[in-house]
Amino acid sequence: MFALIFPCLGLALPVTVPVSAGDNAWMLVSTALVLLMTGPGLALFYGGLVRRKNVLSVMMQSFSMMALITVLWVLIGYSLAFSPFSAFIGGFHFLGLRHVGAAPNPAYAATIPQSTFMLFQMMFAIITPALITGAFAERMKFSAMLLFLGLWSLVVYAPMAHMVWGQGGWLGINGAVPTLDFAGGTVVHITSGVSALVCALYLGRRRGYPREAMPPHNLVLAMVGACLLWVGWFGFNAGSALRADALASSAFVATQAAAAMAALAWGAVEWLRTRHASPLGIISGAVAGLVAITPAAGFVTPMAALLIGAVAGVVCYAMVTVVKARFSYDDALDAFGVHGMGGTVGAILTGVFATRAINPAFGAGVAVGAVDGHWLQIPHQLVGVGIAWGWAAIGTLALLWLVDKVLGLRVSPEDEIEGLDVSLHGEEGYHFD
Fold first, then answer.
1. Would you list the DSSP string of 61-114?
2. 48, exposed or middle or buried, with CB in 10 Å at 0-12, 13-18, 19+?
């Protein structure tokens, strides 16, 4: 009777497919690691990079995504991303987690409960909009941020996730344009990075930027946050194997190699240009490498991972220090320079270095990337990148316009000068006697 009254609660169905205890344990740990990336990882990383008067507001934005996106994902987000319907968007089969329980869904992961797979994907949905907050830090209303990113998760993220990872998705492995994205280069990093750039341009610069210096107020917090992001990323990438197997180990190795090389590459270029290798630079380089290896982690060799990390470190450094200065847009915490460009670089290079020796994604013995002789994969990757760029830009612009009309986006000049911690939240991050 209870199930008849509340059918959308998705009560567990009898398990008819064997569940692997080892795979399920690994995926639950990976799920927790990905949540660690948002809070405390991203919260500390972004919190340390803003001015002291805005530290709580930025950390609040990351934390609030953990709550808001969880509710939306349970109600409708998971269904739009992963239930079968069309090549571009899911349907309502999993609405309210109906039909999501202890039984595996072989279309996605045959050895773990679908509820575990749903939770793992929930953490991706949480961190992706949280990444965007770095672009409009220190100047967007909290209410506007909640409405905008809540809508964004349904209008931009869910369709993109369905196209790449969903059953029957247009950009999936078996789709019309098979795009390789192991853990979210297009779905997570390009969409969030491009959306961040649109936000920065639409909202305009912070008061005083770029005339006034706005250095990070606490690089210790930022370094701790970056370390937590690095650790959590193993759940992000290695967990995307969806099994505790050799592919997860391979993705783990690739993740570590790319992050390390990108940190060194960024630091080396910075030293050649300024004669300093800064802590901020090396942690930014590590994050750039983690971003770039995300789509490739389960497809490339360790040596290819080193190359991807090196390219990402140099390209993202150029975007953050040269291109941003040249065009003077105020991407406050470089969400576009690191995530947008790092994700783009990684997605394209995945088409170059993906190999069947690591992951026979298209079937045993079938070439995967250009190193296998499948040069057509590069244009496929470019199509996926183009779709992610276009969908994120158009969807974000439309949602910003809508929220601006309904609530207004920016805080008042007085509130911005005072700082968002006090003006929006009535509290301060630090009290000094």
1. HHHHHHHHHHHHIIIIIHHHHHSSS-SS---STTGGGTT-SSS-BTTTBTTS-H
2. buried
Residuewise pLDDT in 10s, the chain (433 residues) = 333 333 343 334 444 558 999 999 999 999 999 999 999 999 999 999 999 999 999 999 999 999 999 999 999 999 999 999 999 999 999 999 999 999 999 999 999 999 999 999 999 999 999 999 999 999 999 999 999 999 999 999 999 999 999 999 999 999 999 999 999 999 999 999 999 999 999 999 999 999 999 999 999 999 999 999 999 999 999 999 999 999 999 999 999 999 999 999 999 999 999 999 999 999 999 999 999 999 999 999 999 999 999 999 999 999 999 999 999 999 999 999 999 999 999 999 999 999 999 999 999 999 999 999 999 999 999 999 999 999 999 999 999 999 999 999 999 999 999 999 999 999 999 988 7
212 Cβ contact partners less than 8 Å away, ≥ 6 residues apart:
none
Alpha carbon distance 405, 395 (integer Å): 16
First to last CA, the chain: 61
3-state SS of 354-423 is CCCCCCCCCCCCCCCCHHHCCCCHHHHHHHHHHHHHHHHHHHHHHHHHHHHHHCCCECCHHHHHHCHHHH
Q: pTM for this structure? A: 0.94
Domains, the chain, with CATH or none: 20-410 (1.10.3430.10)
**Both structure tokens of 283:** 């942690």
Contact 62, 145 (CB under 8 A): no
Question: What is the Cα–Cα distance from 133 to 57, expressed in whole angstroms?
Answer: 10
C-alpha angle with apex 165: 95 to 309, nearest 5 degrees? 135
Tokens of 379: 């244009």
Residue 402, token pair as written in the block:
């809508």
Distance set, CA 132 to CA 119, 126, 424 (Å): 21, 11, 19
Report yes or no: 101 and 114 within 8 Å, Cβ to Cβ: yes
Amino acid at 182: F
The whole-angstrom separation of Cα 177 and Cα 7 is: 36
